[in-house]
Amino acid sequence: MTAPVKIGPVKIGIVTISDRASRGIYEDKGGPAINEELSRIISSPWVAEARVIPDELDLIASTLVELCDIAGCGLVVTTGGTGPAPRDMTPEATEQVCDKMMPGFGELMRSVSLRVVPTAILSRQTAGIRGSSLIVNLPGKPSAIHDCLDAVFPAIPYCLDLIGAGRIETDPEICVSFRPKS
Ligand SMILES: Nc1ncnc2c1ncn2[C@@H]1O[C@H](COP(=O)(O)OP(=O)(O)OP(=O)(O)O)[C@@H](O)[C@H]1O
Ligand SMILES: Nc1nc2c(c(=O)[nH]1)N[C@H]1C(S)=C(S)[C@@H](COP(=O)(O)O)O[C@H]1N2
């Protein structure tokens, strides 16, 4: 059974998790790249809620909770902090706040990324459901955003339908979303 549909434009959280971008040591290119990619793919109305934060487990977790529970984001996309380095804690924060993990997202994104870089296996990127929100992790390299989002996006609208996150439509010239029950 699908959850009740939310009315109005879907809110999408865009979270850059980077020590250096959050301190202004370099310009954040990840958040704007996600915004650009979503604008290319999604044809229905949506609004962005962007955040730029350091690689701090508690702050990542509280930002994800705030975006899902208070801002009401149906989808939250993160970039950065998925690797093996000591401060890479995004998957841990994602697991901490999710009711249900969606391992297929990470599997597909790593497999697609492996065609681009052999170090794709170093990303522990994952996805999960918190209430009526889907959280998806992307690697920090801004160039990874296009490859990873394009790979998983065909399944995202139906996932959002199933959890009651709101309805989104995609531009079929860019991404054909698959809704088995429509
Ligand atoms: N938000 C971003 N904006 C621009 N470039 C980025 C961003 N995040 C990462 N990068 C680039 O990708 C590289 C690898 O990203 P990674 O997430 O491993 O960074 P990092 O070494 O953990 O450092 P930091 O957390 O300070 O971004 C970085 O060294 C940087 O060149
Ligand atoms: N598509 C894609 N995936 C990628 C990469 C990349 O450049 N492109 N970088 C890899 C590398 S080098 C690392 S260390 C991991 C984790 O990156 P993160 O800690 O920035 O999230 O993502 C991997 N996945």
From TrEMBL:
Biological process terms in GO annotation: Mo-molybdopterin cofactor biosynthetic process
**Domain annotation MoaB/Mog: ranges:** 13-159
What is the species listed in this Swiss-Prot or TrEMBL entry?
A: Azospirillum palustre
Q: What is its EC number?
A: 2.7.7.75
Q: Does the keyword Metal-binding apply?
A: no
Q: Name the protein family.
A: Belongs to the MoaB/Mog family.
Molecular functions (GO terms)? ATP binding; molybdopterin adenylyltransferase activity
Top enzyme category: transferase
SUPFAM superfamilies on file: Molybdenum cofactor biosynthesis proteins
User: Its biological function?
Assistant: Catalyzes the adenylation of molybdopterin as part of the biosynthesis of the molybdenum-cofactor.
**Recorded superkingdom:** Bacteria
Write down the chemical reaction(s) this protein catalyses: molybdopterin + ATP + H(+) = adenylyl-molybdopterin + diphosphate
Give, as in the UniProt entry, the pathway in which the protein acts. Cofactor biosynthesis; molybdopterin biosynthesis
Show the InterPro entries listed in the entry. Answer: MoaB/Mog-like_dom_sf (IPR036425), MoaB/Mog_dom (IPR001453), MoCF_biosynth_CS (IPR008284), MPT_Adenylyltrnsfr/MoaC-Rel (IPR051920)
Keyword Protein biosynthesis annotated: no
Output this protein's name: Molybdopterin adenylyltransferase
Cite the entry's keywords alphabetically: ATP-binding, Molybdenum cofactor biosynthesis, Nucleotide-binding, Nucleotidyltransferase, Transferase
